[in-house]
Amino acid sequence: MISTGCSPYKIMFILVFSNLVHTAFSAFFKPRNNSKWPKPPCKIYYPVDPLYEANCPDVESIVCASNGVTYKNECFFCIEQWEFGFHIEFSKYGRCD
User: Using CA atoms, how far apart are residues 40 and 43, in angstroms rounded to an integer?
Assistant: First the structure.
């Protein structure tokens, strides 16, 4: 029998490690399809009173609307839609093209 100098433990480690590395990197480079994500739940952002000033969180989660405007997050999009009419519709999460 020919000895290669590699123990079965080394071979198992290499196989398991390469499988884990492949799984981790395939998740990072997988293209995301944001079109299947649900639309923003705008009703939770609408002010109770029309004279009440909206208070959106300072979180950046970009939203693109049908008017071609990119909003900082879904709250800003929903308030804009509430103030200026429902002709502004949700297009996608992410920057407008």
Answer: 9
Query: Is residue 63 a contact partner of residue 71, using CB atoms and an 8 Å limit?
Result: yes
Burial of 78 (0-12, 13-18, 19+ CB in 10 A): buried
What domains can be seen in the chain, in order of their start residue?
A: 34-93 (3.30.60.30)
User: Tens-of-pLDDT digits for all 97 residues of the chain?
Assistant: 566 667 888 888 888 878 777 776 666 666 666 566 788 888 888 887 777 777 889 999 999 999 999 999 999 999 999 888 878 999 999 999 8
Count the Cβ atoms, other than its own, within 10 Å of residue 77: 26
